[in-house]
Design brief:
This protein is an alpha+beta fold. The protein folds into two domains: about 35-90, no CATH class; about 95-160, no CATH class. About 50% of the residues lie in helices and about 20% in strands.
Length: about 160
């Protein structure tokens, strides 16, 4: 009889663990959909996240779309899509795709120019850029300080 009770307790514990795991995953997807910069539901204005690592951002195509934990990315070709699938954390933009400088200087979410970017320590950072303002230039003046502040600011969005 004791063995049956232990089996029931184990089964109950596993069920509860699975419930919490599934709920946490669902919350993560909802967070990403809400907090990431999406244009018509697409990340990085439809740019291929892997293309930044070759030095020239390229527009993705609808036929090469992929949803990573609730966020839709588009890719230039099937090869880039497969590259992303192998290691999405490497290619996803930092701070949900929002301007790294604004996140570091004011803790705010500001839209970006998807062609204004920097790869730093193997990570993609995007920046706001108009005719009169290029925040990448400002970021470069004190990159370490802005990055530290941006990390703290983004963590506040994550913990809401």
């Amino acid at each position: 009889m004791l063995t049956n009770q232990n089996n029931m307790k184990t089964l109950l514990n596993l069920t509860v663990l699975m419930l919490f795991t599934c709920t946490g995953f669902s919350q993560d997807i909802n967070f990403r959909k809400k907090e990431f910069l999406l244009e018509k539901g697409i990340a990085i204005s439809g740019y291929d996240p892997t293309s930044y690592f070759s030095g020239k951002p390229q527009k993705g195509k609808k036929e090469f779309s992929y949803t990573q934990e609730g966020v839709v990315y588009q890719f230039e070709n099937a090869n880039n899509l497969q590259t992303f699938k192998k290691n999405p954390a490497k290619y996803e933009p930092q701070y949900g795709g929002w301007c790294a400088y604004a996140m570091g200087s004011k803790g705010e979410k500001v839209e970006v120019d998807p062609e204004t970017f920097k790869i730093l320590n193997g990570k993609l950072y995007l920046f706001y850029h108009t005719f009169f303002s290029n925040t990448l230039t400002d970021w470069n003046k004190d990159e370490n300080a802005f990055k530290s502040k941006a990390d703290v600011s983004w963590n506040k969005f994550i913990r809401r």
